[in-house]
Amino acid sequence: MKVATYRVGGERRVGLIDAARQTVSPFDIPESEAQLGVLALIDRPSLPRVLSPMPLKEAVLEAPIPRPRRNIYCVGKNYHEHAKEFASSGFDSSAAAGAVPKHPIIFSKVPECVVAHQHPVLIDRNVSQAIDYEAELGVIIGKGGRGVRAQDALDHVWGYTIINDVTARDLQGLYSQWLIGKSQDTFCPMGPWAVTKDEINLSDTTIKCWINGELRQDANTTDLIFDVPTIIATISAGVTLVPGDIIATGTPAGVGIGFKPPKYLVPGDVARIEISGVGVLENEFREYRA
């Protein structure tokens, strides 16, 4: 099923999406619980009943989990061709160990940088001159755990969403550690909704990204260096995962830094990301004004 967090008349709700009919049906939960977004369903032992549908066009979509409980876990250099393009970019502090990593590279983005489908992403030219896009499949944890074995890892997954791991490349290079360059305000578009894990075939999920209508990224999860079970096993080896944790699984080749010269984003650019089984996440980049 597809589950959206949205607003109607200023009130936040969580509802079931019918893509064919273009409707959303709210779950019968208190507004106080709906503030958590999809987390409200993950926290419940069973699904609440569904109320009458309304046209999807009348709803204002929010990120499926508007404010994650913790930092978003992210995986760097997790597609073979992207690992090569990034290693040669001059911004890769791990390049000395080889283009393709031997173990997953894990970093994070702060929860406050999450924004929704069609929400503007802000470019502050006083902070960064090198803004890049990264289309990624996001994993939503449904059952927590520590020391999760790879063969059991998918039992801990609730579902999936789309993430644009927007990055200030100059800050990424300046500070070596990536959190500041990855966590600028509005730098984590997420959505348009979340889907339960039965909607996705990880052995054949396509990931595409267009910038202003130009196809830049076109890959499949079969191209991952470290698959989703391996990523979950790696993070949970000593770090207890909790329900609602989000993991961005890495981006394919075709990011702006991979072009010569780089194709960085400027105000007015539009990033459109499509992942099969999930949907489309689209955001315009605008100039920050204090």
Compact overview of the structure:
This protein is mainly β and 290 residues long.
Descriptive notes:
The chain has 290 residues and is mainly beta. The chain has 2 domains: 2-62; 72-287, Fumarylacetoacetate hydrolase, domain 2. It has 6 helices and 19 strands. It has helices at residues 31-34, 39-42, 80-87, 169-175, 179-182, 228-236; strands spanning 2-8, 11-18, 23-26, 54-55, 60-62, 72-76, 105-109, 114-115, 121-123, 131-132, 135-141, 157-164, 167-168, 188-196, 206-211, 214-220, 246-248, 270-275, 279-287. The strands form 3 sheets. Strands 1, 2, 3, 4, 5, 6, 7, 8, 11, 12, 14 and 17 form a 12-stranded mixed β-sheet that branches. A hairpin with a 4-residue loop joins strand 2 and strand 3. The chain is globular, with a radius of gyration of 18 Å. The model has no long low-confidence stretch (mean pLDDT 94).
Write the layout of secondary structure elements.
Elements: E1 2-8, E2 11-18, E3 23-26, H1 31-34, H2 39-42, E4 54-55, E5 60-62, E6 72-76, H3 80-87, E7 105-109, E8 114-115, E9 121-123, E10 131-132, E11 135-141, E12 157-164, E13 167-168, H4 169-175, H5 179-182, E14 188-196, E15 206-211, E16 214-220, H6 228-236, E17 246-248, E18 270-275, E19 279-287
Parallel strand pairs: 6-17, 8-14, 9-19
Antiparallel strand pairs: 1-2, 1-5, 1-14, 2-3, 3-4, 6-7, 10-13, 11-12, 11-17, 12-14, 15-16, 15-18, 18-19
